[in-house]
Design brief:
Elements lengths: L13 E7 L3 H11 L9 E6 L6 H8 L2 E4 L4 H14 L4 E6 L3 E2 L3 H10 L3 E10 L4 H15 L10 E3 H6 L10 H10 L3 E12 L2 H6 L1 H16 L4 H4 L13
Parallel strand pairs: 1-2, 1-4, 2-3, 6-8
Antiparallel strand pairs: 4-7, 5-8, 6-7
Helix pairs in contact: 1-2
C-alpha cells in the first residue's frame, strides 16, 4: 500500500469509498448527497465497481465521482477504493454501502471530529429504513458495537488516513474485511460513535432473508471467524442480498 499523501494545510480532505455491484438505485440517491453544494460534502468520492450490468458506472461518471473497475468482492473493492483515496490525498477516509444515505450535516460532523485530533476511527449512528421494534433493536446493537470500538460496514466507518495505512487497510478477503480492519484499528487508539451523524441503511437484506435467520447466521459466522476459520471458507455459507442485474 502506498504512503498517504502529506496533509494539506486547512480543513481536512474527506474522501468517501463505496463498493458497488448493480447499485444504480442506491447510488442515484447517495452520490448527489455526497457531491452536493456547500461545506457538507466530500472532497473526493471513489466508487469501486465489481462488474455491474446496470447504470452504476454511468451514474458514477456523470456525478463527478471517480470510478474503479476491478474484481468483484467487498474486500477487494474496498481495498481498491482505499488505495485510490490515499492517492487523491484524503486525510480522512469514509466507507459507505451503496444503498446507505448519510443524514444532512453528517459529513461535516465526521470532518470536525477528526480535526480535534486523537481520534483513530469513528462510526455513525445507524438508522434502518423500516418500521418495527426489531429494527430499532438492530440499530441499538450496531451503535453499542461502535461504542466498543468495532465499526462494521453498515455503521459508516471513518478513519484517519495515517491510521488506515498503519493498520494495513482493508484486506482483499471475501468476508469480514470490516471486522478484521476494525479489530486492528481499535488497538491503535480511540474509536468513537458520532451520535450527531446518522447513517440510513436499507432493510432489504433483512426483509429478503428474515430478521431472525439473517441475524443468527451472522452471529454463527462471526463466532466461526473468531475461532480461526478463514473468510474464504466462511463465504460459502454466506449469501448476501444482491440487487439483480437487468436482463
Amino acid at each position: 500500500m502506498r504512503p498517504a499523501a502529506e496533509p494539506a494545510p486547512g480543513p481536512l480532505r474527506l474522501g468517501v469509498g463505496i463498493c458497488a455491484l448493480n447499485e444504480e438505485v442506491g447510488l442515484g440517491r447517495l452520490l448527489p448527497r455526497l457531491l452536493g453544494e456547500g461545506e457538507d460534502r466530500a472532497d473526493v468520492v471513489v466508487v469501486a465497481d465489481g462488474g455491474s450490468r446496470d447504470r452504476t458506472r454511468a451514474l458514477t461518471r456523470a456525478s463527478g465521482a471517480l470510478l474503479h473497475e476491478g474484481a468483484c468482492g467487498r474486500g477487494a473493492q474496498l481495498s481498491a477504493a482505499g488505495r485510490r483515496l490515499l492517492d487523491e490525498g484524503a486525510d480522512v477516509l469514509l466507507f459507505l454501502h451503496a444503498d446507505s444515505l448519510p443524514s444532512e450535516g453528517a459529513l461535516s460532523v465526521v470532518r470536525a471530529a477528526f480535526e480535534e485530533g486523537g481520534l483513530v476511527a469513528a462510526g455513525m449512528a445507524q438508522r434502518v429504513a423500516a418500521p418495527g421494534r426489531a429494527f430499532r433493536w438492530i440499530e441499538a446493537a450496531a451503535d453499542a458495537r461502535v461504542r466498543r470500538g468495532m465499526v462494521f460496514g453498515d455503521s459508516a466507518l471513518s478513519v484517519r488516513a495515517a491510521d488506515y495505512l498503519a493498520a494495513g487497510g482493508f484486506e482483499p478477503v471475501p468476508l469480514f474485511e470490516d471486522v478484521r480492519l476494525s479489530e486492528r484499528l481499535r488497538r491503535r487508539g480511540r474509536v468513537r460513535l458520532l451520535e450527531e451523524a446518522q447513517i440510513e441503511v436499507s432493510a432489504r437484506r433483512w426483509e429478503q432473508e428474515g430478521i431472525l435467520q439473517c441475524t443468527l447466521r451472522n452471529w454463527i459466522l462471526r463466532a466461526m471467524h473468531r475461532l480461526g476459520v478463514a473468510p474464504a471458507h466462511l463465504v460459502r455459507l454466506y449469501q448476501p442480498f444482491r440487487r439483480r442485474s437487468p436482463d
